[in-house]
Design goal:
Layout (H helix, E strand, L loop, with lengths): L25 E10 L2 E11 L4 E5 L6 H9 L6 E6 L2 E2 L10 E4 L11 H11 L4 H14 L15 H13 L5 E5 L7 H18 L2 E6 L2 H7 L2 E6 L2 E6 L1 H6 L4 H6 L4 E11 L2 E6 L4 E6 L8 E5 L5 E2 L8 E12 L3 E8 L4 E7 L15 E6 L4 E5 L1
Parallel strand pairs: 3-8, 3-9, 6-7, 7-8, 13-20
Antiparallel strand pairs: 1-2, 1-4, 4-5, 9-10, 11-12, 11-14, 12-13, 14-20, 15-19, 16-17, 16-19, 17-18
Length: 381
């Protein structure tokens, strides 16, 4: 593992062992951004700890990039405030916020060498040439590009260009690193490699980072916490496992992985157990989410929580079903089954541990399916 040069560590001495420790290091307070009659963000409040990696996740148009631009100072909030270390920076220009930004399109200067691209921010700050040489060398060593100082961006691979953009953002020693969907143009393998590299560097520097993405896997891989936005509002925030296991709405459940979601016609309590009745008349025992309020409800069942065949025999909820689709996905096999008197369900089974007859299964075959009550949530629709 590459050692991080001491010159790039921030003044307060964060290190790889440092965990988020100062709630409210970066504060987004009731931020609204209105364009004519349209709200890009509406009353968004997030406290981000020092050294934390927060990922803002949401579909296109959810307001996540607008919010990132407001934090950076490229957009001005209609109302609300941005605070860094307790100081309101809402009216400060970007160059007064000590923030590093990696843009989606990278924004490298095509006519400048790698060295000059990375040095650009330091030159704008009138840093002495000797110090620029030292800091640029350290930054490029950190992203494993030490031998490419004289190359042009056109002579680099996509991943190498990404590393140059990251080095340029970090060489100025920012308090906060902002990343706007920086990996969206990379292929899958390179994307995974860069996810690891960015996370490694962020943890070793102990820098506070906020990243925007619409990729759920990327959010779960990189973030200490995930903030899910929808229509300019904060839907839910928390650790990936908490959001995945306890979504507070059908939207959040659907956006954080595969899910079977069905409208609920009615619920009832019997012997301390909740039973949810679907529109088709099918019933399942379930757990009601603490966030559930009055209004339209939905049942949520994750595909990996459904068993088939003999494994379904001891499940609290059981049914007979007909196979309507089967797809081999490498590590997993995905089934779609049509339950007798109920809905279609997606089922996800580990391919290596799947029943022997699954490989011989044909469409229209009949199988038993089952799931336990604690695998079923009733959430706001």
């Amino acid at each position: 593992m590459v050692n991080i040069p001491l010159g790039l560590n921030r003044a307060h001495g964060s290190s790889s062992s440092t965990k988020p420790n100062a709630a409210g290091f970066l504060r987004v307070k009731d931020v609204c951004r209105q364009f004519d009659s349209i709200f890009a963000t509406r009353n968004v409040s997030i406290d981000i700890a020092e050294g934390e990696f927060l990922v803002m996740l949401g579909p296109s148009g959810s307001g996540k990039t607008t919010l990132l631009r407001i934090i950076a100072g490229f957009e001005t909030a209609t109302s609300g405030a941005i605070e860094i270390r307790g100081r309101d920076v809402s009216r400060d220009p970007p160059n007064k916020r000590n923030i590093g930004v990696v843009f989606q399109n990278l924004a490298l200067f095509p006519h400048l060498t790698v060295f000059k691209n990375v040095a650009f921010g330091l030159e704008m700050r009138s840093v002495p040439n000797d110090e620029i040489r030292v800091r640029v060398r350290e930054a490029l060593e950190m992203v494993r590009l030490g031998g490419m100082t004289e190359r042009l961006p056109s002579q680099l691979s996509g991943g190498q260009q990404q590393r140059v953009a990251l080095a340029r953002a970090l060489v100025t020693r920012p308090d906060i690193l902002l990343l706007d969907e920086p990996l969206s143009a990379l292929d899958r393998d390179l994307r995974s490699e860069m996810q690891y590299e960015i996370r490694r560097i962020q943890q070793q520097l102990g820098i506070t980072a906020v990243m925007v993405t619409h990729d759920q896997d990327e959010a779960m891989t990189m973030g200490d916490r995930i903030a899910i936005l929808c229509d300019g509002q904060l839907s839910q925030i928390g650790a990936a496992e908490d959001i995945y296991s306890h979504p507070n709405s059908a939207f959040v459940a659907r956006f954080m992985g595969a899910a079977n979601i069905f409208p609920v016609e009615s619920t009832k309590m019997q012997n301390g157990e909740t039973s949810a009745r679907l529109a088709s008349g099918f019933e399942t025992t379930a757990i009601v989410s603490p966030a559930t309020a009055e209004g339209s409800l939905a049942v949520l069942i994750r595909p990996e929580d459904i068993a088939i065949g003999d494994a379904a025999a001891d499940m609290r909820n059981r049914a007979q079903a007909r196979v309507v689709d089967q797809t081999y996905l490498g590590a997993f096999t995905r089934l779609v089954v049509d339950i007798d008197g109920g809905p279609n369900l997606a089922v996800l089974l580990p391919s290596r541990s799947r029943p022997a007859r699954l490989g011989e299964m044909r469409l229209e075959d009949r199988i038993a399916v089952g799931w336990n009550s604690d695998a079923v949530l009733v959430v706001p629709a």
